[in-house]
Amino acid sequence: MSASRHVNALNCVGQDDVVSLRIICSQARNYQYNIEELDIYGNTALLKACYMGRLECARILLDFGADIHAINYFGQNALTLATYAGNLQLVLELLRYRTYQDFNLSSLIPAICVATLRQNKALEEYFKRLDPAGSQDLHTVHGLGVNDLKQMVNAKIKMKEPQIFQKIHKN
């Protein structure tokens, strides 16, 4: 890591520098570093690791007591961001520290809704297995449920199909 940049947990996650991150986390216990420092979006290092799908960085931060309850300025939590990244292993790691239902209570967009929007069938099915009765009752802060989101995604895909079809036939 370059000496001109401020060395902190957020930068280590951004660089995927697990060695420096481990050192910073161990020194955070002595208050030399703050692993809960926020970036301009309100992300902690753990939230950034989840957004970027960096499993090893997230594991280190969790091992050193990073706040699993952190939420960024957009109302996204670690599970929502790991789902956005599409990282099933990271999702499984996070669920060792906090329940699926508890994560959903603290996010403006439940994880299954993010999986649906990202068209990640594997995560969508996994979340349905975790909460078979409650999955269809979950809604975004905007009141959109899983079925509403599927319809939106399908409509968007259908709108693009004619354009793709026309481009193929022009060539």
TrEMBL record:
Entry annotated with the keyword Transcription: no
Protein name in UniProt: PLU
SMART domains assigned: ANK
Pfam families according to UniProt: Ank_2
Annotated ANK repeat ranges: 41-73
Originating species: Drosophila funebris
Keywords attached to this entry: ANK repeat, Repeat
Record lineage: Eukaryota, Metazoa, Ecdysozoa, Arthropoda, Hexapoda
InterPro entries: Ankyrin_rpt, Ankyrin_rpt-contain_sf
